[in-house]
From TrEMBL, chains A, B, C:
Annotated GO MF terms: enzyme regulator activity
BP-aspect Gene Ontology terms: regulation of nitrogen utilization
Gene3D superfamilies named in the record: 3.30.70.120
Pfam families membership: P-II (PF00543)
Species in which this protein is naturally found: Cryobacterium psychrotolerans
Protein name per Swiss-Prot or TrEMBL: Uncharacterized protein
InterPro entries: N-reg_PII (IPR002187), N-reg_PII-like_a/b (IPR011322), N-reg_PII/ATP_PRibTrfase_C (IPR015867)
UniProtKB/TrEMBL annotation, chains D, E, F:
Protein name: Uncharacterized protein
InterPro entries membership: Sbt_1
Highest taxon, organism lineage: Bacteria
Transmembrane segments: 6-22, 27-46, 58-78, 90-112, 124-145, 157-176, 188-208, 220-241, 247-268, 280-304
Glycosyltransferase listed as a keyword: no
Pfam families linked: Sbt_1
Keyword terms of this UniProt record: Membrane, Transmembrane, Transmembrane helix
Protein source organism: Cryobacterium psychrotolerans
Amino acid sequence: MHSHTRTLLTIVTEAALEGTLVRDLDRLHAHGYTITDARGKGNRGVRDAGWEASANIRVEVVCDAETAEAIAASLQEQYYDDYAMILFMSDITVLRPQKF
Amino acid sequence: MHSHTRTLLTIVTEAALEGTLVRDLDRLHAHGYTITDARGKGNRGVRDAGWEASANIRVEVVCDAETAEAIAASLQEQYYDDYAMILFMSDITVLRPQKF
Amino acid sequence: MHSHTRTLLTIVTEAALEGTLVRDLDRLHAHGYTITDARGKGNRGVRDAGWEASANIRVEVVCDAETAEAIAASLQEQYYDDYAMILFMSDITVLRPQKF
Amino acid sequence: MIDPVILFFVLGAVAGLLRSELRLPAAVYEFASIVLLLSIGLKGGIELARQPFGNLLPQMLAVVALGLALSLIAFPVLRHLGRFTRADAASIAAHYGSVSVGTYAVAVAYLGSRQIAFEAHMPLLLVLLEVPAILVGIVLARGLSRETRWGSVAHEVFLGKGIVLLLGGVFIGWAAGPDGLASIEPLFFDLFKGILALFLLEMGLITAKQAGSLRRHGPFLVAFGIGMPLFSALVGTWLGWALGLSIGGTAILATLAASASYIAVPAAMRISVPEANPTLSLAAALGITFPFNVLLGIPIYHALSVWAHTFARG
Amino acid sequence: MIDPVILFFVLGAVAGLLRSELRLPAAVYEFASIVLLLSIGLKGGIELARQPFGNLLPQMLAVVALGLALSLIAFPVLRHLGRFTRADAASIAAHYGSVSVGTYAVAVAYLGSRQIAFEAHMPLLLVLLEVPAILVGIVLARGLSRETRWGSVAHEVFLGKGIVLLLGGVFIGWAAGPDGLASIEPLFFDLFKGILALFLLEMGLITAKQAGSLRRHGPFLVAFGIGMPLFSALVGTWLGWALGLSIGGTAILATLAASASYIAVPAAMRISVPEANPTLSLAAALGITFPFNVLLGIPIYHALSVWAHTFARG
Amino acid sequence: MIDPVILFFVLGAVAGLLRSELRLPAAVYEFASIVLLLSIGLKGGIELARQPFGNLLPQMLAVVALGLALSLIAFPVLRHLGRFTRADAASIAAHYGSVSVGTYAVAVAYLGSRQIAFEAHMPLLLVLLEVPAILVGIVLARGLSRETRWGSVAHEVFLGKGIVLLLGGVFIGWAAGPDGLASIEPLFFDLFKGILALFLLEMGLITAKQAGSLRRHGPFLVAFGIGMPLFSALVGTWLGWALGLSIGGTAILATLAASASYIAVPAAMRISVPEANPTLSLAAALGITFPFNVLLGIPIYHALSVWAHTFARG
Ligand SMILES: Nc1ncnc2c1ncn2[C@@H]1O[C@H](COP(=O)(O)O)[C@@H](O)[C@H]1O
Ligand SMILES: Nc1ncnc2c1ncn2[C@@H]1O[C@H](COP(=O)(O)O)[C@@H](O)[C@H]1O
Ligand SMILES: Nc1ncnc2c1ncn2[C@@H]1O[C@H](COP(=O)(O)O)[C@@H](O)[C@H]1O
Ligand code: NA
Ligand code: NA
Ligand code: NA
């Protein structure tokens, strides 16, 4: 089995941003993404998903390292000041590299 | 605290596959798994979880590297052609290695 | 873009523990956490989230390595014997290290 | 006068096409479909208690034959005219040989608001029509191969949500009778059309999402999605008339024949014929046939039934 | 004639045992239980407004004593006959000293469809019975240790979902009175049995999942899960009769005594006595006692109550 | 006599302040708000069908002007007296120039239980009041800059869940008329107040969570959250009277003016004016103004309306 290294970029942010974020990801050449509903706490306080305004989403993007950095830089610039958001990256191994 | 390295295998696929997949994992010697509901986009288009047919699941299995490779190979062979599915692996540290 | 290494601690445990766990995390100096609803299987059998008593949560904490180890050790000591729970850690890259 | 539940479907479809942010939580959609399935089953069960079971046997057999026949007819059309792969043709054929509970519910609402009676055991025929096409679809795709694990296919088919709730409802209605059910009527009967309205709102939203796939998979699917139900409705009308059903019952049977499954069959095909592309069958069944039946088909099938009964008598 | 809501429970249990894919979304289950809890509270509150509170005090105290007594009796049986660990015995005892709101709702439906009246303040007794057994359970497991954080135990117990909704309902019913509530009757009263039916469908599915643990933990749990409620119902019948309750009221009190908690107590024990194995208590309370009470127990307890009143009078 | 739906709000708020574990699943909250929005729209639509549209035009224009005016008045107060940043002042002003559907529903329930009639096209005015303040808010924050993508703002505003369901309901009610809707009345009309009760229970829980932010952001927000609705209600009462509305209609218009949005506007501001701190506007609109209106405001606005009509006549 041939395996290849890619980057997993994880974003946790406000659910209100989902539509915009998904458009950004397309524009920034992500080949795909996975979203789950989440709640949490951070600098901007507790976001307990009790209703729309306090819900989070957790978005994962598998891509190559450059794309991940480009996406991270772009999101950080656009959203970090005004939105509850964290970003982190890790190295992963994938089986079908052409997909990502 | 003694810590040990294991592999985290993450699978994102169609919710319709949950029953079969769980049986596969048992058969392939996974000691456990964790599932969350998800939505996303990939080669097979947008899967927005609006209803059963378009819902995804995100499955995580913590196991040793050989088991992870065996599971990944088996799932890839059985499902990659016909189902929306991605797989990736990463190294993690666990505390109670005998559990996995 | 300057990037920095942190630790991602992931905990999967019983939903009934959410309140207590969140207080523990605050006490143990986590700056934040992200929670998603989950189901799964492990040593303590199938937990299918059919109702409150069998639901899991999946908690992620981004922090520095020492904090992660301290949290892991504390949770392991308090909860491992009596609760369905797994813990694992991995290295990640973050952009704004001061947040975590 | 147009039934308001249809307008909810239109609202959902328009909102979806305009890319509105309207979305029903999945739990609400499931709640609506659980209540509808139980409610349809309960109504059937109440009436089953009133008539000897033996009388129904011929109708039940005829309806199973109908399901088999419709999928066997659809398959070659899809394979040769539509040039679909074997698996795709088999899967789409199974969808059209089976039935849509949502379409059935709209037909019931249509007849109800016109006070047209129909045979009360229709939910039983609905259940019977759901299954055979699935088996045909699998055999068409795979041949009668030894590898097919019929045990797990049967499990998938008979223990799926839809059948369990419909048959469970029939059983409870039959065992408890109309008086016994009085106490649960407010939820299962009085709210029926309101909940159908919410269900159709969501169906409209889902339908709108099929628009993209339709554009991609071209005009054959559109033609098939309208032509096949019209043809099936003719067969269903003839069968209803031949079985001696009332005007209302014939219209319902024609609607059942014309409808295409989008719940039980997709789920079964996904597991049993995974190489079939689910986008194709859903685009046809949900994107074309469901709205066609709901907006235009049901009145047409009603007219067909009236015409068949008048013609036959005269 | 069997109540249809019971048939929903049977449907769920059978579907679960056959490993059907039927599943109610968690949100639907929670919706049903929220409406049931509020509805039971509201009904109690309406009636509370009608009678002087002082009259009820003796009954309230008696019922608290009942909860304490039942768990204190269950504990040594579990510890010595059942050979459970101290924590497990304490936890199971707490479940059986407390009550199940679902069982109460079925008893109310049972009496309602037979038009048997009962004292209207029963929901208040229900609330009172829920709590003391939890405290007993904790003390039995831990002793009166200083370490127990009673503040957070009290918070857990009194501010849990169940108690807040029941007491909140009682308060709203009492403050608004029957006329004030007329406008919300369609949801909370008319739909009561329909929503109870959905709730029991899900309870059937959950119950079926306990089958595995039961097989593992053997015949003692089964015997206890039937014997304990029968014994508790005798005590409850005697107490109801001694307090001068009507036949219906005595039957309800016997049912409350016989029922075992599967919501409030498991949640509290999980936090306060974590070393107790939750599988054991749920297998007994949900897998045995709940279906036993719902299918056989309630008619038995009703008969017991009739017998006690006849016997006493004669 | 206090309306029980208000008591559900109080129950939620108290449970929240005591940190109870009571929580409604998000799907239940969404279900309740979907049914309420559709129901309000349907009622409006039915009545729209009864009167010539032309008559309403002046009222519609006046109400748009009202929305614009209220946000333009609030802005300088917030900017200079409250010392908020430009973005925050603009965003809060937009919330107060727009309306809260929940408050509207409580006002309707209030008048209903007192059998006070009001003009039936109020839902239309509700929709019209929702939008203009959002546009004002964006312009106040950004200026009339070229960069604002008005296309996507319009999409966000007009295709948001609230407007689509309200307008969709109006359209369906208008097209189907009262007879057509009879079949869906049990869900959308009979359950209205029960579902409103559940909605308010959740609103109480959400409101309680604003307490923390309020403590942090000080007394100005509290004063504004009470003073602004009182002022707006005066303007609304005057406008209702000037437009010749009935007592009930005037009270509703005053309530609409006094209410502050917590659904449509927060969502729009989050996307279009992201630098505004959403905690501030929600703390004021949800933490102060909503409970103030629901508990005290509506009776005051009703009294204002009676007074205005008496004064004018005398
Ligand atoms: N240290 C952390 N670990 C895990 N998740 C976090 C952390 N900090 C923030 N989050 C998540 O990111 C969201 C936004 O973070 P913030 O912008 O810091 O409020 C929070 O609501 C959490 O869900
Ligand atoms: N590059 C990616 N990053 C993250 N998730 C992905 C990616 N590609 C696919 N997925 C997820 O995997 C599912 C199936 O992928 P696919 O088979 O490519 O359609 C999608 O619906 C997404 O949820
Ligand atoms: N090997 C594993 N891989 C992934 N998730 C696991 C694994 N083992 C346990 N889990 C998760 O952790 C929960 C508690 O585990 P346990 O204490 O082993 O029962 C399970 O319900 C699963 O959700
Ligand atoms: Na068909
Ligand atoms: Na008991
Ligand atoms: Na306003």
